[in-house]
Amino acid sequence: MRERRTVDSSSSAADPSEGMGTLRLKREIGLISAVSLIAGTMIGSGIFMSPEWVLYHMGSPAGSLIIWAACGLLVMFGALSYAELGTIIKESGGDYIYILRNFGSLPAFLFAYTSIIVVRPASVAGVSLSFAEYAVAPFYQGCSTPQVVIKCTAASCILFLTIVNCLNVRLATAIMNIFTAAKLLVLLVIVIGGVVLLINGHTQSFQDTFQNTTARTGPIGVAFYQGLWSYDGWNNLNFVTEELRKPEVNLPRAVMIAIPLVTCLYLLVNVSYFAALTPAELLSSGAVAVSWGNKVLGNWVWVISLSVALSSFGSANGTFFSGGRVCYIASREGHMPDILSMAHVRCLTPSPALIFTSAMALIMIIPGNFSSIVNFFSFTAWLFYGTTIAGLLYLKIKKPELPRSYKVPIIIPIIVLIASVYLVLAPIIDQPQIESLYVILFILSGIIVYFPLVHYKRHPQFLQRVTLHLQLLLEVAPTAKNTN
Ligand code: ARG
User: Fold this and answer.
1) What is the DSSP secondary structure assignment for residue 477, as one 8-state letter?
2) Distance 211 CA to ligand 1 centre (A)
3) CA pair distance 135, 412, nearest whole angstrom
């Protein structure tokens, strides 16, 4: 993969050990942006919509609150484990690079293949669809919004994010920071509303609060899926370690600030929903946050719709930002066409990878439906989170001598591993669905692509010329790693 003829912006200064140019993405992400990349991606549309589903599967308010707390604890454990991985393996690329370094090329390729083609674009598409739904809702009061309007709005959101992310990393992180601040504020408004209601004696949801709680593993697994979708994004910083300033300090620190913050807010927001709405009202609400707004804010309910739209927009930006990086890194490792690992010579953004991710997300929007995206996203995601965590256990047991600035007690990754096995298996065992089989078949179909194209490097002749033309068109050049 390495000797291809490519236009190198700095060929005279090329680093012979890398065999590539010395163009590098810069370290532009500080602690605040790091926290907001995590919290800002985690808080999307989920917390405004999935509480209803968690309650539906768990049967009782107490049951749901336990799920929300357990999800927070689980992702905290997951993120701490990833923080240790990030301080041992200092490259960007998150799960992909950890699976590559611990388990080798084929499993890493399967991860990249699945996440670049389906998982990441699907999550960008899912979040953009919820942005679109709430952004246009005020224009269609009293009637349902035409699907084509929602889909076109979601597509414009993706195109806008592509332009911003291709232009400038700073601009993308600034958008992230502003939107994160805004959504923290909205969640705080909901929390304060709840406190006021509780003080005024609205505690009926909390009487007999355990009644009807389910104990079946299948529904508990699906409730976890819904809750965990709202928490997803917790590992986002690991995708951009090479762009983070002082990653050995800032990676664990950002995790320790962002995740407890989001968990506390999510729990309190749920309490506030229960204070305003009875379980029956919550179950029939369609969009919990809007029903909450109708009750508590009255005419001001549009503030909530607007906030859900903005919150989803910010989360789509974070997902897009890190999603593009998986594609970029996988290509740098020879798992995707070379063009995807190049960066714009002036803007220093991985624009080909971003454009590719955006194209895939646009395709997903066409048939896409939010709730099916969520369940299958979670199934696939936890399959790979489990694999990555197994890699950390391997490193802890077999290579304890490797230097790392942050160490997590071994029991923590063990718990996450057990939880991910449960999360992958419980819904399948309880209610086998043909779609899970499709997901597995899709992942395995990567093997057919891997051997000819990656292992034996049988590339079609025209690829080199296409790469060259695209390089000139997009003004991009190869990049080097940035791990020192
Ligand atoms: N947690 C977000 C939400 O509630 C979804 C994040 C999707 N992005 C991701 N990188 N997993 O809407």
Assistant:
1) E
2) 31
3) 40
